[in-house]
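In response to the reviewer comment on reproducibility (Comment 2.3), we provide here a single inverse folding case reported in full, input and output, so that an independent group could reproduce the run without further information from us. The structure tokens appear first.
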């Protein structure tokens, strides 16, 4: 069976690539919520830096620091969506909801 470009993209979006699972520098991403909106922020060079940003910009207790081997925001969102579906048993429709950067959210207060 020959794999065309669309099939390759679909397979690639299912999870981390072999290179991302193996060697490489680790970056820290935030996955959290503020005012009901899912937010993704990063990359950060340390877990402590990511935690301090999370405490400042996201709802308390509704965030998680996720180590990934990518700096690319689009790729990080794909991996995080895969994580939501596989490890948290979230329905695919919910996982595909938009993920925003906290800097683009207007104050909800």
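Designed residues, in position order:
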């Amino acid at each position: 069976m020959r794999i065309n470009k669309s099939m390759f993209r679909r397979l690639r979006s299912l999870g981390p690539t072999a290179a991302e699972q193996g060697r490489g520098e680790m970056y820290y991403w935030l996955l959290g919520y503020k005012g009901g909106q899912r937010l993704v922020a990063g990359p950060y060079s340390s877990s402590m830096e990511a935690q301090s940003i999370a405490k400042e910009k996201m709802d308390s207790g509704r965030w998680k620091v996720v180590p990934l081997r990518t700096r690319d925001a689009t790729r990080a969102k794909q991996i995080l969506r895969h994580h939501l579906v596989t490890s948290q048993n979230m329905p695919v429709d919910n996982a595909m909801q938009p993920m925003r950067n906290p800097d683009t959210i207007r104050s909800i207060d």
